[in-house]
Amino acid sequence: MKTQMNRRNFLKTATVTAGTALAFPYIGRCAENRKLRFAMIGVGGRGNYGLNAVKNEDVVALCDVDTTAFTCPSQRLGDVSAVDLFPNAKKYRDYRELFEHADDFDAVWVATPDHHHYAASIRAIRAGKAVYCEKPLTWSIWESQQLAAEAEKYKVATQLGNQGMSNNGWRLAHAYLAAGAIGEVKEVHTWTGKHGGWFSDGIVTPEGKDPVPENLDWDLWLGPAPVRPYLDKHYHPKRWRGWIDFGNGALGDWCCHLMNAFYKILEPGYPTSVECLSQTGPAIDSYPVGKTVKWEFPSKGNRPGFISYWYDGSHTPPRPAALEEGRELRGSGSYILGTRGTIWLSGNYCESAALIPDSYRKSFGKQEIVIPGTKHTEEFLEAAKGLIPYDAPLSHFGYGAKLTSTALMANIAARVEGKLLYDAKTLRFTNSDKANELCTRKPRPGWYI
């Protein structure tokens, strides 16, 4: 771990730069102070976060199906709009057209709804571009696995947008685990708390249709997803996440943040099974109001196998026995239960970690951790510029694809009854044809390549 955290110093070598140059000559020639030419796919919402993250680079293209995204002021951008900040950037509505001009840019930031992540990112990878993609990595399991394979094939810099990876919570939990504070891991429990107003969970598609606003290209918004009529305030903006055709519900929204801590610490790979133990409401057009899911992970090296549980919406985890009377599990978080103790990771991004009860934390003593010198987006920019290897970012697509795929199995389990067995070698469920069918779908023509 210490070697990993200090990688910045020893990775700036001629070999690294030369290797990156083979994948993308322009990036390979970049010095640390040379600006990347960015194309932003998805400008509103999380796209504002991306624009702020790369504002010191050279944003040359803005792409969004909703033209208001170009001109709407954002607090993240200092109460100005994207075109105010980058007046010379070319504007596109269809990223397929954007990639017809791939020589104009070096890196891509994808901040679309989930169902567009794969179609945009695969084009970027095959064009030799560095890619930052918001979480979850893709809409489907197959898409995640394909992106990981292609990113490795083309050796481009990638990063999944689970920015909590740069926090110190999982690092401290890793230190506790390495020091033997909780013994062998038996169970992990992760929960979201109640959903906000962004989800349309537990309902079926309403009938009827509304006129499409002039600022929105509804056909482009649908992209690879099945056609359905536009309904005002049901899909765009924001509420798409709860609909199965477009998003992955609360799990897709939070899995890559809340599950990342234990997944990074233990790096378990794919589970051997997944099962939805209970859910509130069916998963038909939208996701359940809440669910409880169980994964079984195999042993690895000297580490025994363990079980992981997920609770979202109205479902909550059992209270850990080690938690003192009067203390409650606040909001969202995760706890790792071992044979000798428990680590509680709290916050939406697992910002902090502590042994419980507090008396045990005090008696066990402080743990030293190595704090990284770069933040989540910064290490991506370094990799994109060839200053560190293409796969040095901690949430590169090879890692992010396994995390996302593991999480998305839970949504399949909510739609297929019973315990689903998974084979990591063949990347298939071994006891359910229906579950395998739900790992992907046939997109509308012209979207996948």
Write the layout of secondary structure elements.
Elements: H1 2-5, H2 7-10, H3 14-23, H4 25-28, E1 37-41, H5 46-53, E2 58-63, H6 68-71, H7 82-85, E3 90-92, H8 95-98, E4 107-110, H9 114-126, E5 130-134, H10 141-154, E6 158-161, H11 169-178, E7 185-191, H12 218-222, H13 249-258, H14 260-266, E8 273-280, E9 290-297, E10 306-313, E11 333-338, E12 342-346, E13 352-356, H15 358-364, H16 376-384, H17 397-413, E14 420-423, E15 428-429, H18 433-437
Parallel strand pairs: 1-2, 1-4, 2-3, 4-5, 5-6, 7-10
Antiparallel strand pairs: 7-11, 8-9, 8-14, 9-10, 11-12, 12-13, 14-15
CATH topology annotation of the largest domain? Rossmann fold
Helix count, DSSP H or I runs of 4 or more residues: 18
Structural class: alpha/beta
**Percent of residues in beta strands:** 15-25%
Strand arrangement in the largest pleated sheet: 13-12-11-7-10-9-8-14-15
Distance between the termini: 38 Å
- CATH H-level homologous superfamily name of the largest domain: NAD(P)-binding Rossmann-like Domain
What number of structural domains do the residues give? 2
Radius of gyration from the CA trace? 22 Å
Sketch the major β-sheet: 9 strands, mixed
Low-confidence segments, given as residue ranges, are 1-30
Question: What's this, in brief?
Answer:
The chain has 449 residues and is an alpha/beta fold.
Brief descriptors of the model:
449 residues; Dihydrodipicolinate Reductase, domain 2; single chain; disordered N terminus; globular; alpha/beta; 31% helix; nine-stranded mixed β-sheet; 15 strands; six-stranded parallel β-sheet; Rossmann fold; 2 domains
